[in-house]
Amino acid sequence: MALQCPIGLDVNQLRQEIKDVYSQVAVAPNGDFHFHRGPEYAASKLGYDASELNELPTAATASFAGVANPLAIDELAPGETIVDLGCGAGMDILLASKRVGPAGQAIGVDMTDEMLASTTNSAAEMGAINAQARKGDLTALPIEDGTVDVAISNGVLNLAPDKNAAFSEIKRILKPGGRLLLGDIIMNRELSEDARNDIDLWTG
Question: Measuring CA to CA, which of 4, 30, 78, 163 is 20 to 30 A from 169?
């Protein structure tokens, strides 16, 4: 996981391409993408409970494109405030909203309008009044300082051009003793300069 984009990579272009790709995933999850998606993948490869996924709106699970199951790392307690960093169509945040209950809060943050709309609509369909979606970037989270019990991230920090800034934001929003449940892809060797400058590799 590179901590920063290589010098010369157009960060604005990278952000736009990430938005474009995941906007397409939100509206056409069965499209031609190079990464896995959907509830069957989540259950069979990542250990999600298929029966629990079946209780969620189809829109929330069809566009799921995570790489892990961060909710399996630790229990969420009733009344906790959870923030999902890069919530996508909302599958993880809706599962979290059920765990923290009506006294808790489940906040999804994403920079893609289509994904935010999907999360908002699915929360309304479920009657999940403790779930909400906010537009934002991992390096400038729309969350007040020290208000979050648990931050979760599922394959999203890899997309951040500046991971040091992203981790600083996570530290800022967490309460003392707060937790980060992080699932992502890491490399055990340094990538070539050509690979690190390939925007297509950064976007998925």
Answer: 78
